[in-house]
Specification:
This protein is mostly beta strands. The chain is built from no helices and 9 strands.
Length: 122
């Protein structure tokens, strides 16, 4: 499986879930699908596909404490879309006030292609 090393999440507008926005780095595969970990100063969430969620198979974003492959019911974002890659997925929901999931129609993950570093000598 050829996977881009980075994906970016954007479009989360809920004040309770804005920390989901950011860059995620590929860390391996889980159940034959890619798994990513949020990088930078954000929270370190994981993006992965769960076959075991109570509502059925879905893409989830879980906090770093929950990890990957465990506790999909602890997701802070989810989508029932069965896309092979996270950038194919739409219909995202995020956990809002009182643990109620709310639609985020603008939330999306997109593949990032790292730019080559150029060294210029004067």
């Amino acid at each position: 499986m050829s996977v881009p090393p980075l994906v970016r999440c954007c479009g989360v507008r809920s004040p309770h879930a804005k920390a989901i926005n950011g860059v995620y780095e590929y860390v391996g595969a889980h159940g034959g699908r890619p798994c990513f970990r949020q990088t930078g100063v954000s929270s370190g969430n994981f993006l992965w596909y769960s076959e075991e969620a109570l509502e059925g198979p879905m893409w989830v974003v879980t906090p770093k404490e929950a990890g990957v492959g465990k506790q999909p019911e602890g997701a802070i974002a989810r989508s029932g879309h069965a896309g092979r890659w996270p950038w194919e997925v739409d219909g995202w929901q995020v956990c809002g006030k009182n643990d109620v999931f709310i639609d985020q129609p603008h939330m999306a993950f997109g593949a990032m292609h790292p730019a080559a570093e150029l060294i210029v000598q004067a």
